[in-house]
Design goal:
The protein is α+β, with helices and mostly antiparallel strands. The protein is built from twelve helices and six strands. It has a four-stranded antiparallel sheet with strand order 3-4-2-5. The chain has a two-stranded parallel ribbon with strand order 1-6. Helix 6 runs parallel beside helix 8, helix 7 runs antiparallel to helix 11 and helix 8 runs parallel beside helix 11 (275-306). It is elongated, with a radius of gyration of 28 Å. It starts with a helix and ends in a 43-residue tail after the last helix.
């Protein structure tokens, strides 16, 4: 199994096997568009569910309960204040968290006593706290400022590093794509948005840009001599770069997602609602979508931008025309890559000194005994 995966990765790197990812970019763009639209709909209705840290209010934690009936807590709070709509969640193995709007000091004491009586625990086992909405407002503003500054720095750094603003635009598109879908999933699930969730959102931006930069670095390396040769188009050379980094992207994603999935399971199933669950869901969805965008969205979009350049466009037309003439008038089949025969594989030219697989290595003569 491992040997087969290693051979598959080697074939992708050398170009003996290649998936037409860039050439089928319309499919990936359609999938991404659908996901973004669905996420936007979820953000509008039902919308995000802000936690008490953002909306403010009173919070009660009942520890050491034998019966974790959440409806009992709701009825108990309503018995003190009928207009209240409390939010009750299980915390750990024997605790309940009850969140309400802002209550007066008298109401807080009444709710504490009522909860202690309802769950048959000492009054000291019920703790209360108040969180002001202004704190959540400050956190939201700082999170937005952090995202804006991060995106501006990414644009500047990538433009300077790759000396190509189109790669920076493609990377930003992938970042927005990942962020919108991750936030949309949170809205669809209905889990509360807490400061831990915001941390998760900011973390996935770093993961997404890291994976995209690795792929773009290979794209830049492969396409540096595009206009100096007449065998491969820019799209085909970029497609080889995506294939060459595909195994690395898969390995990185699996290694990152497995522990995050374990944390998500522990936080959501074993411990109940809490910080672990909030940050793990954001990380899991963001890393999964980030892997998809770095492979199937960022590079294909960058290629679509580069193919609008007159030099690249003329170079591509020249190569496709030459292939059509060599194949006896065969033209494109409606896709983005022309086929010059049934054996053609959309890959890039191999450079001298590059790894070409075990089959290309010199054969050793058997030694005489």
């Amino acid at each position: 199994m491992a040997a087969g995966f290693a051979q598959w990765g080697n074939d992708l790197y050398t170009g003996r096997r290649s998936y037409n990812i860039v050439g089928r970019r319309k499919i990936w763009f359609t999938i991404s568009t659908i996901l973004v639209i669905l996420s936007t709909i979820f953000l509008i209705k039902p919308g995000l569910n802000p936690g008490i840290d953002f909306r403010g209010g009173s919070e009660f934690v009942v520890a050491g309960v034998a019966d974790k009936d959440q409806q009992l807590a709701i009825d108990t709070v309503k018995s003190v204040k009928s207009s209240e709509e409390p939010r009750v969640t299980t915390v750990g193995a024997d605790s309940l968290r009850v969140q309400t709007s802002k209550l007066t000091n008298t109401e807080v004491e009444e709710v504490k006593g009522a909860l202690a009586k309802a769950y048959d625990v000492p009054v000291g086992a019920v703790t209360s706290s108040f969180i002001g909405a202004s704190w959540g407002k400050d956190v939201s503003q700082k999170a937005i400022i952090g995202i804006v500054v991060f995106l501006l720095l990414v644009t500047v750094v990538m433009t300077i590093y790759f000396r190509n603003w189109r790669m920076a635009i493609a990377a930003l598109l992938a970042l927005f794509h990942d962020l919108i879908i991750t936030v949309g999933v949170y809205a669809a699930v209905g889990w509360e948005v807490t400061p831990a969730t915001v941390i998760g959102f900011l973390t996935i931006l770093g993961y997404s840009i890291y994976d995209t930069v690795v792929v773009f670095d290979k794209v830049r390396e492969n396409t540096a001599d595009t206009l100096e040769q007449s065998r491969w188009t820019y799209a085909e050379k970029a497609n080889l770069a995506v294939n060459q980094t595909l195994v690395r992207s898969i390995n990185t994603s699996v290694v990152a997602l497995l522990p995050v999935a374990a944390i998500l399971f522990v936080g959501a199933v074993v411990l109940g609602a809490g910080t672990l669950r909030d940050i793990a869901l954001a990380l899991f969805v963001g890393m999964l979508i980030g892997t998809f965008s770095s492979v199937f969205l960022a590079t294909p979009f960058e290629v679509a931008l580069r193919e609008q350049e007159p030099a690249i466009k003329a170079h591509t037309a020249k190569i496709l025309a030459a292939r059509a003439a060599a194949a006896g008038g065969l033209t494109t089949d409606g896709g983005d890559l022309a086929l010059a025969g049934p054996s053609y594989v959309p890959a890039g030219a191999l450079k001298a000194g590059s790894h070409q697989g075990v089959a290309a290595q010199p054969k050793r003569r058997p030694t005489k005994k």
